[in-house]
């Protein structure tokens, strides 16, 4: 049986034995000592490497740049960033770029092993595909010219009292200059993804200090619809009654709870809401934990008005783009993933379901081959979990032949 592979990128040779010495029997450890070596090596073994340990302390290496490059190469790998420095800004940035965790040295080898074991046990192909789709989608806007066009198009459509449609967004992402120019000249003729007129974004401020609540509300209410709460229970009541809250500003320290414990409750009530953590302390463990649990960003007290407004603008733009992910996911899988790749990912999903003791169902097949819904087979129907790649291919071929009759 092939051992699971880990890639360690660090120029401190002592770390290689200290961190992973006890894991060599369970995992195959590959080492790289520089940026260039890491990229070259990863391109060769990306399909085998499931976990990458990346030191942020390698001289001459831009951690964010390397993380982004490697995420593009190995889209189904998980990345753990570690450092001697409690750099909260770097920690937040790597988490937002898709890192699994950010760990501060020194830490015990057993803590790292526990984290790595959790990654391997929790690998879910559907989650990986969703993350890949999101990264691919947002990376389309790395072209500053297209980002500028998007901002202009958003402004233009707001002036027309409507929102950019999915078709328009895809045309902007994938079109040439003539296609993009047509978007600005011809505002009509597109099916709108969201039909309601754009309303002022709704912000919930959860802050125990009355003066701070009033100040934040005064700053924001000209541009946003603002709700305020002085404790966790009041915030929960507001969220239950106001289902359309867009962003929550969540203070970590509250009289009846704390932000870390309140965050999952907020996400349970409104899974789509964006949460910005507000803290008076640079507590890196708290920030990392809340980011892993669904927070979108953080801001430190005391903050300036411009910092608060820019953070909200950034989070709201992310929320807006996320609304297109389901449609983009469909287009991505149908247009950019080959038939063989779909089968490979589906086979991996079957193995994962079997390992977790879960049923493999028709709904799993419909994710990759939505056209097979025409067979009218109940999506909750359980299928054999011992299907190999050839058996799965034969099964899907029979279903496709059935709908082609």
3D architecture notes:
The protein is of the alpha/beta class. The protein folds into four domains: 4-123, Rossmann fold; 141-197; 202-303, Response regulator (Rossmann fold, 3-Layer(aba) Sandwich); 337-404, no CATH class. The protein contains 18 helices and twelve strands. It has helices spanning 13-20, 35-45, 63-73, 88-96, 109-122, 125-139, 144-159, 166-174, 177-185, 210-220, 232-241, 259-269, 284-292, 305-322, 325-336, 339-355, 362-368, 389-404, and strands spanning 4-9, 27-32, 49-55, 78-83, 101-104, 202-206, 225-229, 247-251, 274-279, 297-300, 360-361, 382-383. The strands form three sheets. The chain has a five-stranded parallel β-sheet with strand order 2-1-3-4-5, with helices on both faces. Mean pLDDT is 77; it is low at 140-144 and 186-198.
């Amino acid at each position: 049986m092939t051992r699971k592979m880990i890639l360690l990128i660090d120029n401190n040779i002592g770390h290689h034995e200290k961190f992973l010495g006890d894991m060599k029997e369970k995992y195959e450890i590959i080492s790289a000592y520089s940026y260039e070596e890491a990229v070259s090596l990863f391109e060769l073994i990306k399909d085998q490497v499931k976990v990458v340990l990346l030191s942020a302390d390698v001289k001459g290496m831009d951690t964010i740049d390397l993380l982004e490059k490697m995420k593009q190469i190995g889209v189904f790998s998980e990345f753990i960033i570690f450092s001697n420095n409690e750099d909260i800004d770097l920690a937040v940035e790597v988490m937002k770029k898709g890192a699994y965790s950010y760990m501060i040295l020194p830490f015990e080898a057993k803590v790292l092993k526990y984290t790595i074991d959790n990654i391997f046990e929790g690998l879910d192909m559907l989650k990986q595909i969703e993350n890949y789709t999101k990264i691919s989608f947002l990376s389309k806007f790395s072209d500053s010219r297209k980002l500028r066009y998007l901002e202009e198009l958003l402004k233009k459509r707001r002036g027309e009292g409507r929102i950019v449609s999915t078709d328009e967004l895809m045309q902007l992402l994938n079109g040439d200059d003539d296609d993009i120019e047509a978007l600005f000249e011809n505002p009509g003729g597109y099916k709108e993804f969201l039909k309601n007129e754009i309303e002022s974004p709704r912000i919930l401020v959860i802050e125990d200090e009355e003066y701070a609540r009033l100040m934040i509300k005064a700053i924001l209410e000209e541009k946003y619809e603002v709700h305020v709460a002085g404790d966790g229970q009041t915030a929960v009541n507001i969220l239950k009654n106001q289902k359309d809250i867009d962003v929550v500003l969540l203070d970590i320290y509250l009289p009846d709870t704390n932000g870390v414990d309140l965050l999952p409750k907020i996400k349970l009530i409104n899974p789509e809401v964006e949460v910005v953590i507000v803290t008076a302390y640079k507590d890196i463990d708290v920030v990392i934990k809340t980011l892993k649990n669904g927070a979108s960003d953080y801001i430190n007290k005391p903050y300036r008005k411009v910092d608060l407004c820019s953070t909200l603008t950034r989070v709201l733009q992310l929320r807006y783009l996320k609304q297109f992910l389901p449609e983009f996911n469909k287009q991505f899988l149908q247009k950019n993933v080959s038939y063989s790749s779909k089968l490979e990912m589906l086979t991996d999903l079957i193995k994962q379901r079997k390992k977790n003791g879960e049923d493999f169902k028709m709904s799993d097949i419909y994710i990759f081959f939505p056209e097979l819904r025409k067979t009218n087979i109940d999506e909750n129907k359980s299928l054999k979990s011992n299907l190999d790649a050839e058996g799965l291919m034969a099964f899907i071929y029979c279903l496709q032949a059935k709908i082609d009759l």
